[in-house]
């Protein structure tokens, strides 16, 4: 007998499948009707908001551009890239430093403004990637093709799920579970805030030459879409292009231009060799902006116990 949420496709009416998919746009724990049917297929209904984010960028044709809008888009790119690499990746996924429960919640909120789902989903899939990097079960290995590794993997029922058994240390916090369940709340608040700030600036500071729709399109949609594609180059390109300093079991590479684009994540071969380090650059010239930001947070006592590479790693270098 199938498990309660495992139905053959033919037993679930199309209307119910569609309403369930739409409900999961806002509540990621809403029951799945047909996830058991080929869990690696692209779920196009689930993918609609993702496609919509890209289409919304075309709004620049109507709202125009201003230096204000470009600065806001750039600032939100930098802050949210830092949140993805410094919080979602190095804290939630790898626990490379310590933080209080309150700070951890703030990290989760800022991280979820990047529109890359909740912290538990992100960390669960990322831990799975490290355990099985570039093996058959690795959902975003470029061995499955560029587009599969870049973005198609998370548009599948298997990629959509959060396997809580991989993140028991995070799942015990109800506030993080809530952020993960309703992962569109923070992004929607950010979008609404940008529109409101733009509308106020139009009235109070007309010399800035901006307005609500313009800040919404540039600050939210364009910034988020560029941020997304830059982040996932680490899955699609950093396992393909660059140098290998360590002979890891996977295809990870060190790549300086990906490191600049992603604030330090491009030192991906170093990272796969020793994932527990808060710092990913190993040499002084391996620019790792996220690490400098974390050092600053450590000086301000927001975080502590930043882990680094142990001395023995240099003896394992092969190039
Ligand atoms: Zn990797
Ligand atoms: Zn990692």
TrEMBL record:
Pfam families: FA_desaturase. It comes from Solilutibacter tolerans. The chain crosses the membrane at residues 44-63, 69-88, 182-201, 216-238. This is Delta-9 acyl-phospholipid desaturase. GO terms for biological process: fatty acid biosynthetic process. Belongs to the fatty acid desaturase type 2 family. GO terms for molecular function: oxidoreductase activity, acting on paired donors, with oxidation of a pair of donors resulting in the reduction of molecular oxygen to two molecules of water. It is a multi-pass membrane protein. Residues 69-286 form the Fatty acid desaturase domain. It is found in: Membrane. GO terms for cellular component: membrane. Keywords: Fatty acid biosynthesis, Fatty acid metabolism, Iron, Lipid biosynthesis, Lipid metabolism, Membrane, Oxidoreductase, Transmembrane, Transmembrane helix.
């Amino acid at each position: 007998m199938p498990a309660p949420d495992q139905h053959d496709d033919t037993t679930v009416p199309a209307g119910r499948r569609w309403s369930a998919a739409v409900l999961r746009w806002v509540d990621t724990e809403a029951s799945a009707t047909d996830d058991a049917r080929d869990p690696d297929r692209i779920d196009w209904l689930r993918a609609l908001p993702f496609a919509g984010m890209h289409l919304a960028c075309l709004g620049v044709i109507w709202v125009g551009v201003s230096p204000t809008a470009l600065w806001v888009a750039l600032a939100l790119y930098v802050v949210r890239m830092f949140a993805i690499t410094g919080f979602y990746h190095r804290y939630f996924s790898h626990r490379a430093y310590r933080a209080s429960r309150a700070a951890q919640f703030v990290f989760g909120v800022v991280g979820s403004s990047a529109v890359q789902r909740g912290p538990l989903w992100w960390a669960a899939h990322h831990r799975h990637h490290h355990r099985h990097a570039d093996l058959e079960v690795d959902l975003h290995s470029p061995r499955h093709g560029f587009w599969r590794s870049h973005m198609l993997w998370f548009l599948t029922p298997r990629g959509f799920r959060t396997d809580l058994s991989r993140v028991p240390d995070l799942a015990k916090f109800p506030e993080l579970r809530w952020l993960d369940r309703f992962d569109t709340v923070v992004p929607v608040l950010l979008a609404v805030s940008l529109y409101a700030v733009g509308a106020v600036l139009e009235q109070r500071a007309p010399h800035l030459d901006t307005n609500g729709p313009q800040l919404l399109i540039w600050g939210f949609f364009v910034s988020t879409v560029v941020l997304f594609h830059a982040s996932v180059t680490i899955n699609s390109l950093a396992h393909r292009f660059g140098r290998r300093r360590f002979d890891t079991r996977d295809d990870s590479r060190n790549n300086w231009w990906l490191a600049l684009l992603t604030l330090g994540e491009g030192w991906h071969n170093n990272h796969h060799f020793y994932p527990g380090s808060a710092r990913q650059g190993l040499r002084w010239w391996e620019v790792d902006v996220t690490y400098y930001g974390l050092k600053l947070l450590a000086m301000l006592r927001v975080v502590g116990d930043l882990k680094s590479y142990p001395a023995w790693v240099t003896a394992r270098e092969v190039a």
